[in-house]
């Protein structure tokens, strides 16, 4: 949002520099992102002076050039070669002197230098309108009618508007500051100065004009609607001061009527709309909705189908304007307009937001309406606009002000405690200072007691509805920098905070995964509904649909990280990057009976080769064990048990494992089935794991406990077991850990055999057992006793045959 310092000075006596004003506003929460100098004529006509042509002769070596001598107020005259057909002796002209920079209307800037043109010296340039950026004409040089002496700077003759423009990064909550008046209100409180508002008077009918009546169908959509009829309008260019103001805000002047409505919008924050009164059918304005599918042609000549939910300004024949968003092509002000109906309203922010989003329209008016304008401003803004229209466009008032406001919006009443002010700010601010700050912000203080008061905030302060909001207002004007750190730091929380810092936990795990060669990706939460419809494991009924979808490919929120990740893999594979290790922390969404549900997941993807081709060893493709090892390592880092493990073969996996803690799924790991790969157009094998990050964070047990390295040696013993194929390694491991007791430190598999040397339906595991006592050296007797326990447990609990 752009704010003019010159315009702010109309509201408040500013002696501070633009930089000081910018710093003050930034400290108070209105972040000034940049300050730039503005000149209505670029370069400010620096180096351009009034001159008089003393002689004008034909150039000896060029038919279309003239050789002139010009008095520019120096001791000696200047010889200038001029190509304009209208140059003549005795003319007063504008001359660009040596070294002057010119900023033409079209083309690049250039500097005037001493030159020779067809053999004749030229010491300057007699200028045309477009060469100075004053217009578009290049038919000839500008001939002046002035008595100013030769050598007078051109800026004395032609007014150059100069200003400084603040670029403010307005946050969504500060709708009240979306105008020059709003920013001036903050400066009033910060600088302890008075605010000067333009005076307006009641309107008196001065002429006849079209009779306009207004009907508001639903006051909830349009709580207040005001308007007035003006006649005798002369549509034409705006005065220079108004054009300069609009140009300084990067707005293009259109005509005096439209420019005044834009001026009021940026000055007061109140959008206005001018309708050609003679084109309003039956003299009746209707504020309401139109049927779904109605075609409405907007000012940009586009035909738009209405959703039926947007608010419309209509007449009995049809739509005139999408309320608060965009005007219609058939109702706007043109050069032939002589009477207007000037609208000034307060619309419900919700209904304006819906209309703007549905049609993809973002205008200066909708920007303000959908955040919340001042319901007490419409009539004042109307009177101020009428005052300007009378001065600039010759308007005459042809009706009384229509003001439909059946249910006035009440002020916000907020109970505030001095104790809460001191606690949240961290500093005791005297009650007198608290009251001064709030009243300087137009927040009234009533019902004062020793412990607190009632704050009355006007409706335009849509961000001041709670006690915390009032305290924030006090702090930002008092100054964040005024709150010193105490010698003894302590914190008083508004709510309980978890002991674990989940952001640090995620960051730590991200670093570890990156160290293992994984790349992090962040994908769009919006995805295709066809994934859920064709996946076989996602329920389309649970998809969260987007009402104002950006495209058909982004019409629902994702239920899984799988498909957004596969899209990334497909993009890389299509660009011949086939060896991929990715991870993503992301949120998934679904509908349930209780409402909408969000949960956080961690997705892991492996695809392609584990190692590149090398003369040392052949390349290997990623396998299930690689992904399982990563998941196991994550659980080890978070100090979480693996939980219950079971084999799965349902979508989206060809096969895999599921880890559960109690009844909750901790992770699913496996090979992605062909059907899901085809949906995302992935043409190579993909291993995928999806972990329940919310559950992981909840169960993470913090730092692992460490102990001294044992002084006593570790012993390894191996066994070969023949077991049924249905028995999983996880079952074997649990039996071993239970039977081995404290001496069994770890167990590993170093060979698996399935073949004709053992019975059908059987498999053989070669296992290693690592035994260690932390207090004594293990003896053969103790080792043999432990191994006997293991053998007996394997035979009894999993039906194992011990191979010798």
Total of domains: 6
CATH class of the largest domain: Alpha Beta
Structural class: alpha+beta
Count of DSSP E strands?
42
Total DSSP helices: 19
What is the arithmetic mean of pLDDT?
91
Q: Do you know the CATH architecture of the largest domain?
A: 2-Layer Sandwich
Question: The CATH topology of the largest domain, please?
Answer: BirA Bifunctional Protein, domain 2
**What gap, in angstroms, lies between the N and C termini?**
83 Å
How would the global form be characterised? elongated
Report the radius of gyration as a whole number of Å: 39 Å
Strand order of the largest sheet: 29-33-34-38-37-36-35
Q: Can you give the helix content as a percent range? A: 25-40%
What is the assigned CATH homologous superfamily of the largest domain? Bira Bifunctional Protein, Domain 2
Measured by DSSP, the beta-strand proportion falls in: 25-35%
Describe the structure.
With 804 residues, this protein is an alpha+beta fold. It has six domains: 2-40 and 161-191, Phenylalanyl-tRNA Synthetase, Chain B, domain 1, CATH 3.30.56; 48-156, OB fold (Dihydrolipoamide Acetyltransferase, E2P); 213-404, Phenylalanyl-tRNA Synthetase, Chain B, domain 3 (3-Layer(bba) Sandwich); 412-478, Phenylalanyl-tRNA Synthetase, Chain B, domain 1 (2-Layer Sandwich), CATH 3.30.56.10; 502-699, BirA Bifunctional Protein, domain 2 (2-Layer Sandwich); 715-803, 2-Layer Sandwich (Alpha-Beta Plaits), CATH 3.30.70.380. It is 25% helix and 28% strand. A seven-stranded mixed β-sheet has the order 29-33-34-38-37-36-35, sandwiched between helices. Strands 3, 4, 5, 6, 11 and 12 form a six-stranded antiparallel β-sheet that branches. The radius of gyration is 39 Å and the shape is elongated.
